[in-house]
Design a protein that fits this description.
Strand content: 15-25%
Strand order of the largest sheet: 2-1-3-4-5
Number of helices: 8
CATH topology of the largest domain: Rossmann fold
Radius of gyration: 22 Å
Bound molecules: calcium ion
Largest sheet: 5 strands, parallel
CATH class of the largest domain: Alpha Beta
CATH superfamily of the largest domain: Response regulator
CATH architecture of the largest domain: 3-Layer(aba) Sandwich
Shape: elongated
Length: 223
């Protein structure tokens, strides 16, 4: 489950946000001033931070700047009551990922959260995303539509190579070299067999097929 830290001094808004995010299946934590928020953000590993700009003890701009200066790259969405161009520019300038002007609708907030998370994932080499499929190279895990997909080491390797060359038509030779070993000679139809297994797991009924056969060449992955 994703955990979101809310740094906001309006307790009423914090309560509303916590409740709404919970319904969307996010878990939440909060801080009511900038100092406490900074402390929590430094100590715990959050997936995202909602950061108000006007805060007691330490304002959101400072909190954001200090987090980025400490090498913490958790996605941050700034919340601003003023909505002045200046606030927004400053927010993005100190390393925030996006901003929302108060008052905002919950659906807009959810959309921004998803967009920021998606951007983060596609720039993170440890995580590969394609449509609703996700490969986490640190945890060595693949999910599609949120469901775990257990893969054998060969299937995982095959998928990994395809994802690293997304949009390319990969030759059979290149895939065999990568999954088995350079120059490996197939005894049967190992590559086709493994592609078939992988497809059965990844491209299940009702899902958009991601793995494509390029006739006379090999395979590719794409939406
Ligand atoms: Ca405030």
């Amino acid at each position: 489950m994703m955990t979101i830290l809310i740094i906001e001094d309006e307790k009423k808004l914090v309560d509303i946000l916590c409740r709404a995010l919970k319904i969307e299946r996010y878990s939440t934590d909060f801080a009511l001033d900038g100092e406490d928020g900074l402390k929590k953000a430094m100590k715990n590993d959050y997936d995202l931070i909602l950061l108000d700009i006007m805060l007691p003890k330490k304002d959101g701009i400072l909190v954001c700047r200090e987090l980025r200066a400490s090498g913490i790259h958790t996605p941050i969405i700034m919340l601003t009551a003023k909505g002045t161009v200046n606030d927004r520019v400053i927010g993005l300038d100190v390393g925030a990922d996006d901003y929302l002007i108060k008052p905002f609708g919950m659906n807009e907030l959810f959309a921004r959260i998803r967009a920021v998370m998606r951007r983060k994932k596609t720039t993170d080499p440890d995580i590969a995303v394609m449509g609703n499929m996700l490969m986490d190279r640190v945890k060595h895990k693949v999910t599609r539509a949120g469901k775990d997909i257990p893969l054998t080491p060969k299937e995982y390797k095959l998928l990994d190579i395809l994802l690293r060359h997304r949009g390319e038509a990969l030759s059979r030779r290149k895939l065999i070299d990568g999954v088995w070993s350079p120059g490996f000679k197939e005894l049967g139809n190992e590559l086709n067999v493994h592609v078939r297994y992988l497809r059965r797991k990844i491209d299940q009924k009702g899902q958009k097929p991601l793995i494509h056969t390029i006739r006379g060449v090999g395979f590719s992955i794409g939406e």
